[in-house]
Amino acid sequence: MDDPWLTAYATDFLTRAKEVGYKVPQNAMQQALSSVKNRLTYQSDLEKDSETVAYALYVLARNRMASAGDLRYYVETKLDAFRSPLSRAQLGAALALYGDRVRAERAFNSALGLAHDIANRNVMPEERTYSFSSIRRDVAGMLALAHEISPNLDSLSDIKDLARSLYDPERRLSTQEQAWMVLAARAQLANTQDLGIMLNGQASDGPVSTSVSGEGLDATPLTVINGGEKQLEATVTTLATPIEPLPAGGDGFTISRSYHRLDGSVVNMSEIKQNERFVVVVSASQLEDVPARLIISDLLPAGLEVENPHLISNSEMDSFSWLQKTNVTHVEFRSDRVLAAFDRQRGEQKDFTIAYTVRAVSPGTFTHPAAVIEDMYRPDKSARTASGWMTVSQ
Fold this sequence. Notes:
This protein is of the alpha+beta class.
């Protein structure tokens, strides 16, 4: 990986997988740990990237490869130089793994103070050109680490209170926020005692989660009773399919999608014939000049399939010489969608275009899903085309 923080993140994933019994190849594990350790040697500049240093030390400590002296040095003399709450909590967790509870408490208390400061200002300190950080991700990570190392940590209840105050059910979560919230929930479940919850008259030893269809809920409503002394919160998540096609919309981006015959002429896709070939052109623009890690997801109607698993370049078709050449970081052609990822830095090109060929393969009438662009770490910034219907005739 080119990003040292992501290297530590991936190695953390492998470590956790190995700890719970998954078979992680020893060679791959050793290579990952060696990469983290080697990068740490050249990543000691805390002004440049303190988050990577803290994460690397935590991962090494979890594998009993960190220097306890280095950890104590950073907490005692350089703690304020770590500019994110999660990085300070990772130092504390690393020290706790080595049995140094006093310095671990100090690091977690420092992380909590910084988190409160950031939450009040609603601005994360910027370290790198583009950061994976958000205050919600960091607090979720603090909560996960605190529960994992010590359910009796002095600052744990305050971290929980802060996490609760930041929760917004209307706000979309980034992939990092989702991952650390799952870890936080898992850690809490592992340390939860009997809460006194009864579901449909049946007592549960701990937290309760269940899923039910709309028809099933109408036929047999759920009854949840809190028989304990503590106040509890119930979270309900609903999943549904829109009755009517969604219109185009967005915030921070624009996106459009057009279909063309091989001679370049535009075609209306509401009614097409089986075995016809088309070129799909998706164009998007970022309205703000800010660093971003973007992904375009173009969902295919069930009647279409990608014909050639590659993007069309300007040199391939004279009829499409007008296509703007875009540097794509990563592209995937799946059975139901095409995904293209872009890394954009401040001041770089803000327009993105991808094109690929499809063939109509199955007759019938199908939902025509929207094409979407979004910033992976600012998921509130996204845009979509309108969805609709497509008929493929024999």
